Amino acid sequence: MAARRLNFSIIIFLLFTVSCGKGRINIRLNVKSKTDIGTSITSSNLVGSWNGFGGPALDVVVRNSYAYIAKSYKGLEIYDVSDFSNISLVGRYDTAGNAWGVSLSSDGNYAYVADNSNGLVVVDISTPSAPSLAGSYDTAGNAFGVSLSSDGNYAYVADSSNGLVVVDISTPSAPSLVGSYDTAGFAWGVSLSSDGNYAYVADSSNGLVVVDISTPSAPSLAGSYDTAGNAWGVSLSSDGNYAYVADYSNGLVVVDISTPSAPSLVGSYDTAGFSYGVSLSSDGNYAYVADSSNGLVVVDISTPSAPSLAGSYDTAGSALGVSLSSDGNYAYVADNSNGLVVVDISTPSAPSLAGSYDTAGSALGVSLSSDGNYAYVADNSNGLVVVDISTPSAPSLAGSYDTAGFARGVSLSSDGNYAYVADYSNGLVVVDISTPSAPSLVGSYDTAGFSYGVSLSSDGNYAYVADGSNGLVVVDISTPSAPSLAGSYDTAGSALGVSLSSDGNYAYVADNSNGLVVVDISTPSAPSLAGSYDTAGFAWGVSLSSDGNYAYVADGFNGLVVVDISTPSAPSLAGSYDTAGNAYGVSLSSDGNYAYVADGFNGLVVVDISIPSAPSLTGSYNTDGNAYEVSLSSDGNYAYVADDYNGLVVVDISTPSAPSLYIPSY
């Protein structure tokens, strides 16, 4: 067993990064391609995509007008794909494990989910909008793939280190163990022969394993072929003579299985990425390979001994699974963090794109224009991104400017002509946004620290920068094209956020381990310490009440902390509410009754602050990324959440006790 694990050190790491849910780790499985593909082989067009509600899309099955997606820690999600321009979530069932694979019963009433450590889960999907638990069987291993017998009585589960498990599903509400065969490798995927006598197992470093299942209660080894890579997925030709193996770093491998006891190599095509899944066209001429960071690869298999590249479409995420429409015109790609991608494959040599939008970086900060038509997103390595939100149900890219650093926070001038970006190692960057579709560089000032946040004075002459270990930096922006140092105050902690009092005399700094620091800025050239309050957590962000009496601090693992600042020189604890996540940012409703907290992996949390000494939970919406910052629309109906790799998320907060997702994540 030790040898088997050693062979999988890299794969197990990748597996971990995908399968871990929120609260533990959120990392995209974006494996670098093995070779530089160079010039594209075809011009490609996307038909439609949905960045979904988060969770990596790992497997997909399409039936009629619905796509059923295994979404890891999000469980099973059902999408209406009848209109590619308006793909929508219909229903979801959150399994107890991490959903990796899915198969549907022939009558379409049940979805059988390979739920990792939770085994096999049977979900009633007879009403797609209300999927519910029908039954489950907890296998001894980790369920990654599942295929069903043609009579619908058995589910064959690829159960990782436990090999192949046969489960009786004749009564969906009471699945039970029938038999098992412990393969020598790690079973990731499984396909069944049309006669139901053989199961073909993608057995990782052990290659392709053929299991005789003619007697389901006593499966036995029939034969095997050890591929050169690590077998993740397998599909069979309609005549049953060939198995097409997604062989990870070895690409697509064609194995002759006409004699199940003696499978042999026929041919192979080494894709540029890492192959995880494969589906075949109904005519048997093309194999569609989910090739991780290389997207969807179309391989001509009309001559099995000489498979060749037909075309490709490079999806934005990491393609892990693929399913084809019944008419063969569309490929539905489970694209990891990029959700569901629909590719037109009616011309296999030219898979085609219509359009999609997702921020290319990790959204860490957001500010809204005064007219409410644009959201300005600090998109980390992607710089400043301008999103048209005039129609909240259909946000779209307006423009962008790629700053030289890593955009962490953004504030807008009162006239709406300039965006001031806290650009981390690049300091403060001033971007002309008078034409939102064409933002351009105006000027910059490179602070001595690492800029995390920025607030502007009411007269527009000064930018107050939370500059990390360099404390608070005051930049003169009276001439936007030539910002210059006005003054600074080196706080004892690491300045991560800043808000200004309405009279402009005080800056309230979220100073990480040092809590809340009050800086007198009545003389911008000589800021000085006024007072401080050391919160119990790590202060990341701060917002002030309209009367100026309270500072609401996003205090990391300590949640929301309310500090009485009626006497700036002596701030004191007023109250607190410990959120379930890590509070990074906070915005207040215009009536002062609610605090909207960007709570990291816990999403958006709404806290009732009508009594500052006794804040209480009102509602929450669990976004699918890591909520770092939040801004509210002027009418108070929408919260715009900078949701890390999940982009910009718009949440309907018209009913604070029941916040809900208004539109897809962008």
* Individual helix count: 2
Topology, number of strands: 56
Low-confidence stretches: 1-46, 48-54, 353-358
Structural category is: mainly beta
**Shape, principal axes of CA atoms:** elongated
Largest sheet: 4 strands, antiparallel
Helix content: under 10%
Radius of gyration: 27 Å
Spatial order of the strands forming the largest sheet? 1-28-27-26
Would you write up a description of this structure?
With 666 residues, this protein is mainly β. The protein has 2 helices and 56 strands. It has a 4-stranded antiparallel β-sheet, with no helix packed on it. It has a 4-stranded antiparallel β-sheet with strand order 2-3-4-5, with no helix packed on it. Strands 6-7-8-9 form a 4-stranded antiparallel β-sheet, with no helix packed on it. The protein is elongated and about 85 Å long. The two termini are 44 Å apart. The relative contact order is 0.08. Residues 1-46, 48-54 and 353-358 have low confidence and may be disordered.
Q: What's the structural blueprint in terms of helices and strands?
A:
Blueprint: H1 2-7, H2 9-19, E1 46-50, E2 59-63, E3 66-70, E4 76-80, E5 88-93, E6 101-104, E7 110-114, E8 120-124, E9 132-137, E10 145-148, E11 154-158, E12 164-168, E13 176-181, E14 189-192, E15 198-202, E16 208-212, E17 220-225, E18 233-236, E19 242-246, E20 252-256, E21 264-269, E22 277-280, E23 286-290, E24 296-300, E25 308-313, E26 321-324, E27 330-334, E28 340-344, E29 365-368, E30 374-378, E31 384-388, E32 396-401, E33 409-412, E34 418-422, E35 428-432, E36 440-445, E37 453-456, E38 462-466, E39 472-476, E40 484-489, E41 497-500, E42 506-510, E43 516-520, E44 528-533, E45 541-544, E46 550-554, E47 560-564, E48 572-577, E49 585-588, E50 594-598, E51 604-608, E52 616-621, E53 629-632, E54 638-642, E55 648-652, E56 660-661
Antiparallel strand pairs: 1-28, 2-3, 3-4, 4-5, 6-7, 7-8, 8-9, 10-11, 11-12, 12-13, 14-15, 15-16, 16-17, 18-19, 19-20, 20-21, 22-23, 23-24, 24-25, 26-27, 27-28, 29-30, 30-31, 31-32, 33-34, 34-35, 35-36, 37-38, 38-39, 39-40, 41-42, 42-43, 43-44, 45-46, 46-47, 47-48, 49-50, 50-51, 51-52, 53-54, ...
